[in-house]
Design brief:
single chain; alpha/beta; Rossmann fold; seven-stranded mixed sheet; 8 helices; globular
């Protein structure tokens, strides 16, 4: 099963998971860091891999003129249902129905570790951005997907059993608050992301590593993630 097929199959579960207030990492300690990375609203913001539309709705509320895209028909429908005024369309992130230089900002929030062809997606982003346009990215941190903690203890060892430098899928079934979700990430080393950006003509402006800093922690098992980053936020400019 491709990564895009996974998200279509689990679209209903994801929509419930993502929309439960305070439930997902987006609400708990992730969203505000990412929004702070973005430039002010400009000519046109493109949300590529919008999912059920939560970030697109937040961007719209902050004054961005947003066009949103996702490969999953079910998630596109969910985004439209949540905000019928949102301009959202089904599209592959590597083949967007846009003219060259269409926007001045592309956001890709928790998407690039879920695409099968990273190079094609980043090249397509460069095509639809105007010169000096920004590309803002959030991904699961490659260190996170490289290994696992041995236990849930705060001082547990973190072990990498497969090569950090080789791509591999990482499956995680999460349960919280009566909801379940199966996540599948494609682990890639950081140099793969940086290399794709370099090849497409981007220069990296900012990098932020996001840890679990929620106070107070909901569970003692969260404390182990104070020692390692959960997510990576990055802003690049088209040269």
């Amino acid at each position: 099963m491709s990564l895009s097929e996974h998200w279509e199959r689990h679209a209903a579960e994801w929509t419930c998971w993502a929309r439960q207030p305070g439930h997902d990492s987006y609400w708990r300690f992730h969203r505000d860091h990412f929004l702070g990375l973005l430039p002010p609203p400009g000519r046109l913001t493109l949300d590529v891999g919008c999912g059920e539309g939560r970030l697109a709705r937040d961007l719209k509320a902050r004054g961005h003129d947003v066009r949103a895209f996702d490969a999953s028909p079910a998630l596109v429908e969910a985004a439209r249902d949540a905000d019928p005024s949102l301009e959202v369309a089904q599209a592959d992130a590597a083949a967007l129905p846009l003219e060259d230089g269409a926007g001045d900002l592309v956001v890709s929030f928790m998407v690039l570790m879920n695409v099968d062809d990273l190079t094609a997606v980043v090249n397509e982003t460069a095509r639809v951005l105007e010169p000096r346009g920004r590309f803002c990215i959030a991904i699961t941190h490659p260190l996170n997907t490289a290994g696992d903690f041995e236990t849930t203890d705060p001082d547990s060892a973190f072990v990498i059993r497969e090569s950090y430098f080789e791509a591999h899928r990482k499956d995680l079934r999460a349960e919280r608050g009566g909801l379940t979700m199966r996540f599948v990430d494609l682990h890639r080393p950081l140099q793969d992301y940086a290399g794709a950006l370099e090849e497409a003509g981007f220069l990296i402006e900012r990098i932020r590593e996001i840890a679990d800093d929620e106070e107070p922690p909901q569970r003692e098992s969260q404390l182990r993630w104070r020692r390692l980053p959960l997510f990576l936020h990055l802003r690049a400019v088209k040269s």
